[in-house]
Specification:
103 residues; three-stranded antiparallel beta sheet; elongated; alpha+beta
Length: 103
C-alpha cells in the first residue's frame, strides 16, 4: 500500500463516499487501497470533531453598582468550564489562549 497524504476536506469527502457506497469498511478500504485500521481511526476522529459544537456561548455581563461606576466582563462557557475575563483583556492574548486550547 503506497501512502497518500490527504487533508481534512479530502478525508471528509472519502468518508462521505464510503457512507454512500453501501460497502463494508473492509471492502471499501480494499477497493480504495486504504489501511482499514487507519481509515477507521480517521473516520472516528473526524466524526467526533464534527459532532462537537463549532462555537461556544459568549456572554457579556454588566453589573451597575452606581450611576458612576460599573463592572463589565466577558464570560466564556464550554461544557462544565467557565472563564470570566474583564473586557480590557488584550484580544491577542485571548486569541492565543483560544488557539492553544483548540490544539
Amino acid at each position: 500500500m503506497s501512502r497518500k497524504y490527504r487533508n481534512t476536506a479530502q478525508w471528509l469527502e472519502l468518508i462521505e463516499v464510503f457512507e454512500q457506497s453501501g460497502q463494508s469498511q473492509v471492502e471499501f478500504c480494499a477497493e480504495h487501497n486504504l489501511n482499514p485500521a487507519y481509515f477507521s481511526k480517521r473516520r472516528s476522529e473526524l466524526m467526533q470533531a464534527q459532532s462537537e459544537p463549532a462555537f461556544v456561548q459568549v456572554q457579556s455581563r454588566s453589573a451597575c453598582s452606581s450611576a458612576v461606576s460599573f463592572d463589565t466582563s466577558l464570560t466564556l462557557r464550554f461544557q462544565q468550564t467557565e472563564l470570566t475575563l474583564p473586557l480590557s483583556v488584550d484580544p491577542r492574548w485571548l486569541a492565543g489562549l483560544i488557539k492553544t486550547l483548540a490544539a
